Protein: Methionine synthase
Amino acid sequence: MTRIETTTAGSLPRTEALIAANAARTFAEDGFTLQSTPEFDALVAEATRDVVERQRAAGITQPGDGEFGKAMSNAVDYGAWWTYSFQRTSGLELTGKDIFSQEPVRSEPGNVRLTTFPDRRDWTAFAEAYQDPESGISVGKNATAFPATTGPITYTGQEAIAADTRNLAAALQPGERGFLTAIAPGSAARIENEFYGSEQEHIDAWAAALREEYRAVTDAGLILQLDDPSLAENWDQINPEPSVADYLAFTQIRIDAINQAIEGLPKEQIRLHLCWGSWHGPHTTDIELKHILKTVLGAKVGQISFEAANARHEHEWAVWEDQKDLIPDDLILVPGVVGHSTNLVEHPDLVAQRIERFAKIVGPERVIAATDCGLGGRVHPQIAWAKLEALGEGARRVRV
Structure:
């Protein structure tokens, strides 16, 4: 019987000390770059060791650093996976224009454009719920403001990514494989662009810059997880709803950017994370997986992580079965089998059932069980760790 490997989608609850330390950091003159100190760096290294050990104890066989190198200064923060990139690139500036405050944008056939976050179709369809502070939909508060691109994008995060790889490597046991997350070009390029002549040029610039971060992770012998919710989530940020054909053409640009950025890197060390956005909204305007799976599978990666546990997308395990002929023979599936969108802790038998669905499609040796999205900043720490324990136990109960 094959042992099912387990992992997470990245973000895990930060300790109170780490949140407080991030909140106490000062900004550079640009107003969004956080300053570090040797004491802070030492705290992150110690916290990383602890979170890896805690994952191991919960039954996670491929641990990550919990994204502890990505700043969260509040217990609830859905954007740390993205805002960290502002700390590691030049060419950005606070202009007062961002995806939350810009004027809404309208698309038309053959000319798909992203609108603002408040103008997302799910957000407008359920405006009362999204605007009600007691509805449970809050996305928290980010550690930094969102800048705009006002100059050439270049990578400046060499010291930061070196610290991330060093901290995780030091926490791993001999023979243990860990992973680090990094934002994909298409998601990174969703900030306001005031410099490049086209969206394509903006995405290409991010791809060229982020490639340095990607290489640093794979060179360290770690798994690189590319976080790209834009592949599915962008559908809801296009107003009015586009045709599927127009959306696929729009998305192909982002797949091409991934392939450009990872060209020459070891495929078996690269995982793509696909999701529909981790906020606790209705998600009635999510695009169905069946429409995008073929396009997404064009990414030249060795693993694909995706939501398969939440109420909006769990049923789509059948899409993988129906379209299994599209799945490359060497692709490892990393389905989410415990969720970030509910406080209910999944029963280990349910976790095992979810895993078995995918094991029957591609074989148990090509399945790594995971969380839907990051748990850190989205559910209470006590609940998050109970979910990871359920994940570990569920994987042990698999019978295939």
Q: What stands out?
A: The first helix runs from residue 16 to 23.
